[in-house]
Amino acid sequence: MSVTPIRLYGDPVLRTPAAPVVDFDKELRTLVKDLTDTMMHAPGAGLAAPQLGVGLRVFTYYIDGELGHLVNPDLDLSAEQQVDDEGCLSIPDFAWPTPRALRAVAQGFDMYGEPLTIEGSHLMARCIQHETDHLDGILFIDRLDKEQRKLALKEIRAAEWAGLPGPIVRDSPHANPTFEG
């Protein structure tokens, strides 16, 4: 098991767009394993490479018993929207109602460079969008309306972990049933 520290809100890597993967090699497979192990340990529903401090377009997910990953995702989103609580392993212990497309189709590659398509609605669609946002340097709080975002930022600044130097590893399982990625 290779659990890696998760970067917290405020770390610049979370705001930096990730580079496309060009080498589908052993290092990429190790990254996918580290992402998977860390996500399952946290526990979370998804985890993107920038959350481990790696600026590559890769994420893992674990939704409804389905474990997987996607490299270099390209999204096609439905016009129909959903709003539900959403959280993030890089903003621990918080969740806010966040608008997302109801359905998503993500095309990309697996860790071996083979074409892969992931599609889903509701929670899977939310996960695909959340993790792809991480790859673009976007956090879910950026999707909140102006007033909600202002309140969220106030709560984040008051959090026990706010301002701590460097990444942390969450040792206690998170009991919040909302999406955490």
From TrEMBL:
<comment type="function">
    <text>Removes the formyl group from the N-terminal Met of newly synthesized proteins. Requires at least a dipeptide for an efficient rate of reaction. N-terminal L-methionine is a prerequisite for activity but the enzyme has broad specificity at other positions.</text>
</comment>
<dbReference type="InterPro" id="IPR036821">
    <property type="entry name" value="Peptide_deformylase_sf"/>
</dbReference>
<keyword id="KW-0648">Protein biosynthesis</keyword>
<dbReference type="GO" id="GO:0046872">
    <property type="term" value="F:metal ion binding"/>
</dbReference>
<feature type="binding site">
    <location>
        <position position="134"/>
    </location>
    <ligand>
        <name>Fe cation</name>
    </ligand>
</feature>
<dbReference type="GO" id="GO:0042586">
    <property type="term" value="F:peptide deformylase activity"/>
</dbReference>
<keyword id="KW-0378">Hydrolase</keyword>
<dbReference type="GO" id="GO:0006412">
    <property type="term" value="P:translation"/>
</dbReference>
<dbReference type="Pfam" id="PF01327">
    <property type="entry name" value="Pep_deformylase"/>
</dbReference>
<keyword id="KW-0408">Iron</keyword>
<keyword id="KW-0479">Metal-binding</keyword>
<comment type="similarity">
    <text>Belongs to the polypeptide deformylase family.</text>
</comment>
<feature type="active site">
    <location>
        <position position="131"/>
    </location>
</feature>
<feature type="binding site">
    <location>
        <position position="88"/>
    </location>
    <ligand>
        <name>Fe cation</name>
    </ligand>
</feature>
<dbReference type="InterPro" id="IPR023635">
    <property type="entry name" value="Peptide_deformylase"/>
</dbReference>
<protein>
    <recommendedName>
        <fullName>Peptide deformylase</fullName>
        <ecNumber>3.5.1.88</ecNumber>
    </recommendedName>
</protein>
<feature type="binding site">
    <location>
        <position position="130"/>
    </location>
    <ligand>
        <name>Fe cation</name>
    </ligand>
</feature>
